Amino acid sequence: MNAADGVRRERLSWRLDRMAEFGARPDGGVNRQIYSDADRAARGELNRWAADLGLELYTDPIANQFFRLVPEGADPRLPPVVTGSHLDSQPTGGRYDGVYGVVAGFEAVAALIESGAEPKRPIEIVAWSNEEGSRFAPGCMGSMCFAGARSVADLADITDRDGLRLQDELDKTLASHPQMHERGFGLPVRAYVELHIEQGPVLEKLGKPIGLVRGIQGCRWFNVTVEGEARHAGTTPLALRRDALRAAVGYIDELQQALEDPDDVIRFTVGRFDVSPNAPNTVAERVGFSIDLRHPDDAVLEAAAARIGAILSLERGGCRATCERIFDHAPVQFDPDLFAAIGDEGRALDLACETLMSGAFHDALFMADHCPTAMIFVPSQDGISHHPSEFTALSDLYDGARLLTRVLEKVAGP
Amino acid sequence: MNAADGVRRERLSWRLDRMAEFGARPDGGVNRQIYSDADRAARGELNRWAADLGLELYTDPIANQFFRLVPEGADPRLPPVVTGSHLDSQPTGGRYDGVYGVVAGFEAVAALIESGAEPKRPIEIVAWSNEEGSRFAPGCMGSMCFAGARSVADLADITDRDGLRLQDELDKTLASHPQMHERGFGLPVRAYVELHIEQGPVLEKLGKPIGLVRGIQGCRWFNVTVEGEARHAGTTPLALRRDALRAAVGYIDELQQALEDPDDVIRFTVGRFDVSPNAPNTVAERVGFSIDLRHPDDAVLEAAAARIGAILSLERGGCRATCERIFDHAPVQFDPDLFAAIGDEGRALDLACETLMSGAFHDALFMADHCPTAMIFVPSQDGISHHPSEFTALSDLYDGARLLTRVLEKVAGP
Question: Which residue of A has its CA nearest to B235?
Fold first, then answer.
């Protein structure tokens, strides 16, 4: 029996529906913040699935979850082939971003077990902690720690909007699943393959079910703080104000103009904007806003970052800005052999494939520094992601899971 | 004995220190939101002070507090002279805004009692509910309801940022002080005199301790909502975005330019700006922001409001804005006789007085529709208000309370 034929549409669909119950929003979307009750419940469900499949359960100091299959006759000392993605979502998230890669990993492993395939390497499904970074910034903490790019001690004191500390919330999560075996970061990995929705419009427009991902564009995150003075809105003439909100609006306007790109390739986004005291009749004392900057070419990113720094270094309306770079990753090219192998398996399944660069970053960005890494995309309807209306057709989800199954069998194989 | 001589600096200072403990911020300021635990505790302290002075305690359906003195030989059937202000503060509030007028009322009444003054009318101290409007907008709810400008039923379903309903929080507050007698809104009042810090720089600049307030400039509040679409910040080209934050920044920039006033008399403030989902890597789906607009001339306000409406009626970057007027009050002129009487008493105390227009609105704005009304200002250091560094020297606070005592004695007098 061909292992890919063991993938079951209904079971795949059921698994996705089940996961969408954890952190379900009334509008059909998902809000599953890292280390929240909903996240812990979702982790518990994966543990049950893994136990049903007879997998070994591991976790590490950032609470990444690993579910390990040692196939009949395989050598447990060989570095495993790893697949997976993440469970955490945006506050207004959809049902597919991240969780699809984990669910498809379970479906592929189930299919491999049922087919009696006998690859010689262990296979692991991973659910990385905190890819989104929406509760505790920055994102991709789980894969960063695993690959050695950050330490948990570095991250421990980061707080969420309610002032809760990352280490405390992480400890609660670790304590809630005592049946998982603990292990360290950085274990050798034969290959990492991540299956994910595209989160962009390309595959749908081309009518192709599979994206072969060459790499990921570079990304930098900045936190900008603008300091003014709280004043009474009714009594203070404009000339005597140092209005942090007025200054922030001016900075953002100027940044947007400076980073305009006629080819529309640069991604410049201000998505977070927090005002203190945020009262209608008080001139703002402080504004914090985020900048998310991306481009496939590192030189372009560097020049854009320099312009951002120059604009924010100038006072505006008596207010000063400070700009902290909190995340920085150069563009990444995935492993050419693994990329080619995925293409071969796609053709063997007669699936139409398109080569893409990823606009979003993923845990694969950090795993690419650790081991041969590649990604597979499936289409996103209307390119929508980070939104309850995020949707991928079951036939595309099914094709992605079948391709993943073949790739795992191949790369772990004899 | 002259009643004004009964005002005690130390007791006035102690009362202000005591009130600043309720909702105290670590930076020395005050965050005392309406109907909060801190607010209820502060109300309880006033009730104790009133009981110590032998005053009658009344409340009404919006939880305004009234402390009533019926002097020896006075006619309890006559409409009272009322003085006071409010206890609630901005989130980053100071120790004087509002609470000074209430505290000075207690000091004046204590001085009147001790002096054996025998005015023929009752005197009441009032602490109005929710002048600031920072938890439940709009402000001045207590005086609005008292004067018949709004009903509690109108306001009951307003929610705070945590989704708590005004009526529920109000009910909790009413239930927490069962010893207060209930009475209705709109009782006849002989005169209302409100003592307040200036919250602006004029008196300090002129070196004068007393402001005689002619009236209050007009004020309008708007809530603006900008609707876009949540999209992934890394994958969505600018051309395919409907970015509510980008649009909101553009609207605010255009509004600021359109309302520029060479004489710097118009007050235009955006103090609140809330983004959804407010995540660094998601294009904003929705932004809500406030507009606070003020001017002494109603025709100017009307023209400015029309420009605001015109600017917000145009789509921006694929986003639509809606603009709701949530508060509107024309400029008010205070009662000329009461204004003149306050000036006379100020001169009798040999205090240098300056005539002013109030830039801030106050409960006096609504009381002016109900009864003869006027206000007294004392200086604000550097014009600072709505901030922990808000400060007025004790000598000025003392002079204000002495003047208030004389005015109450005079207006309630034989």
Answer: A359
